[in-house]
Amino acid sequence: MASMKEKAENVAASAKSGMEKTKATVQEKVEKMTSRNPAEKEVAEERKEERMAAAEAEKRAVQQRNMAEKEQTAGSGAVTGYPSGMTGVATGHHHPTTGHTTGSTTTTTTDPYDPYYGAGQHGTGARYT
């Protein structure tokens, strides 16, 4: 779960960096078109390079932060992505056609829209408990 979160944050950082770079390029083109002086055009080019470098630095910082969080979590032995106190894993096999789990877990169905709810729908005709 943590690696998925890390990947999602890295993808978002890359996308944001790409958008910032595109904005910098567009702003540079607008500034070059509106300026008549070669010195102003050069300043616009420098601004674009600064904006692109800042966007790339921000992306790298987010990636480094995510990597550090991952390493910190891996070293602590903690399981991430699950609330504390969450327990209970079914020990058995789940039957995809009936929706039941065999083993030590029981399934209770109270949904009247469930196709296996009620008498005569499935198995012995008894309700699930």
**Spans of at least 5 consecutive residues with low confidence:** 85-90
Shape: elongated
Number of strands: 2
Going across the major beta sheet, what is the strand order?
A: 1-2
Taking the alpha carbons of the first and last residues, their distance comes to 32 Å
Radius of gyration, rounded?
Answer: 28 Å
Helix share, percent? 55-70%
Portion in beta strands: under 5%
What pattern of helices and strands is seen along the backbone? HHEE
Tally of domains? 2
Mean pLDDT: 75
Largest sheet, described in full? 2 strands, antiparallel
Helical run tally: 2
Structural class by SSE content: mainly alpha
InterPro entries: LEA_1
Family: Belongs to the LEA type 1 family.
Biased composition (Basic and acidic residues): 18-72
Region (Disordered): 1-129
Structure commentary:
The protein has two helices and two strands. By secondary structure, it is mostly helical. It folds into two domains: 2-76; 90-129, no CATH class. The chain has a two-stranded antiparallel sheet. Strand 1 (92-94) and strand 2 (101-103) form a beta hairpin.
Q: Summed up, what is this model?
A:
This protein has helices spanning 2-34, 38-76, and strands at 92-94, 101-103. The chain is mostly helical.
